[in-house]
Amino acid sequence: MVVLPPSRAFAGRFFGGGGGGGGGRRKRRSDAADDDDDEKSSTINRRSNTNNNNNNKSNNNFSERKKKKTTRIFAGSGRTTISKNTNGGRQYPFPADYDVMVQQARQALQKAREDGVDLGEIQFPPGGLDLAPGDLEGNVECTLTATVLRKILRGMKEEEKITVLFPDPTELKLAKRGQTGMCAPDGVAPPEVFQTDPLFEDWRGELNYLDDPNAFSVSGLDKIFGKSATVNDRVDINEGNMFVCAYPSGNIAELTQTRLLYENIREENESKKSKESDAPASKTKTKKKSLVVVNGELDRTRSNYYPWFWNKNEMEPLREFSQSFEGIYFIHNFKGTNPAVLFRCYPDDWRVFRRRPNDAVECVWSSSTRPKSLKEIALDVLPKFP
Known about the structure:
alpha/beta, eleven-stranded mixed beta sheet, 12 helices
């Protein structure tokens, strides 16, 4: 009998699927050794670096669509190039590899912070730039997301003022201590192939978690008896300026806690704004506190992935909440015989690239406004631009 860690036994996909390939977010490592996920892990770097063997090619211009210049970009150099668009802005190319992606995401996050964006989203495929969520086992996707997130945050300003929140205590322990030396509930140590590094061991800011699911909370008894604890009971927002929620995609409870944290942050921002309006004009204004969700798979909530009758009182606020995010950095792949990818690097436009032979990508559509959902791109945009 497989015994999941307590935090995943109850939250474990009680709400229909985790942040990866089904089942719980984290399998018990000793049981996972019987799977072939080690083969998936060994191919991750090869998938993300396949573009490095291509020859460098120059950009070709294509016809104007929606009054925006479309550009054909050939991946392979691993170097970030910037091309001008017709409205005087900057357009970043689709990243050739993860090194470029990390650099772009960090720049976009810093720019959004400077512009006062207080609620942002970063979404990317952790196992390969041509993959989609769920292509890898959830255990692997979580580890890879944390690895890339650590690289993005490593170059951020005021690291000590950034609070990183993981979904639950188990994920927090993995981030701080790694998998080495951590045993399953039955005391069995994990196999070496599934051991992970303590990615946030040297983190200078605060580390915390969003939700601590148990039988009392999952059953709803905590709400009936008024004993439910929230993330705001654990996190002091006065200790940080930016709050990064790592992959809160396991169940709606994690996203609910994210929303509660943001409401607290928004109230604090409004309070500071009110005080500054009464202060002398010469006084330096402080930046807004902000919240950023990384790989939260928010489109599932935006697009009614959950049935309308499922936890209606919780889902309606969450749908409204998920629609208010600014896309800071976004990559989503559409597979098939004619694959495509939706890409956005703040403050650029939202763009759709078609994947062409020889690992080339061609921009076929762009818009200054965010698509309503991925379904809109799949049904309305892609058929028009083969």
